[in-house]
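Holo prediction — flavin mononucleotide.
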Amino acid sequence: MSKLAISTKNHRGEEIPMKKILILNGGPRKNNNTAKLLASAREGAASAGASVETIDLYNLNFTDCRSCLACKNKKIAVPWKCYWKDGLTETLEKVYEADAIIIGSPIYFGEPTGEVRSFMVRSTFPALSYDDYESTFTGKIDVGIILTMNADQDYYDEHYKPRMEEYFWPFHFLNGKTEILASCDTLQVPDYSRYRMASWDETKKKAHHAEQFPKDLQAAFDLGKRLASQQ
Ligand SMILES: Cc1cc2nc3c(=O)[nH]c(=O)nc-3n(C[C@H](O)[C@H](O)[C@H](O)COP(=O)(O)O)c2cc1C
């Protein structure tokens, strides 16, 4: 598969192809935990010289797979593309051109958001061959996933981590690596006294946030940089 012909030169004047990284915000809030971590991942990718674009999935009008099965139709020459036309189509075209995608999602009732689930199905199901269950995708896209949640690190490690590693397995049809970063015990609101959220200790939450969130931002930066540097 051809990547976009964007390149830069090293100090010897040799062409180095510029990596394309697509950042997908799979949460509804534009300036909260998930979005901030994605912004840091974006900075990390940009610091490694990649071209980066961010798209908010919640701004797009799309659904899960419609089971049109055009991707499995024998008349279709390129089977790994989603042929359903809706608000996700333009973004999927950018995914197919990307070297890596970084998806952010808050955890809702123990799972990523519905938008992230629908995106995952739309971007991977076409690449699943119903002939032999191998991938038909001819390129390679690495996938970084940033999850945010109220759960603390211990709860994540015991309950969510194994589930999330399984949950995102369809991305292996894109032939790259999948890496998950978890930001736990996030600050859900700036002022807990204004909400019926008595089960949270605001002082503890804020202390944890002050100590841990900068480290999570750094980990997100490193993830973006790594994905933009990987061969
Ligand atoms: C509808 C809803 C359901 C949630 N369910 C969970 C959950 O099951 N487990 C959890 O740890 N956090 C849960 N949370 C908390 C969010 O995952 C957490 O606040 C996250 O950091 C929000 O991301 P944001 O700040 O980017 O919006 C839930 C939040 C909402 C709004």
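READOUT: The first helix runs from residue 33 to 47.
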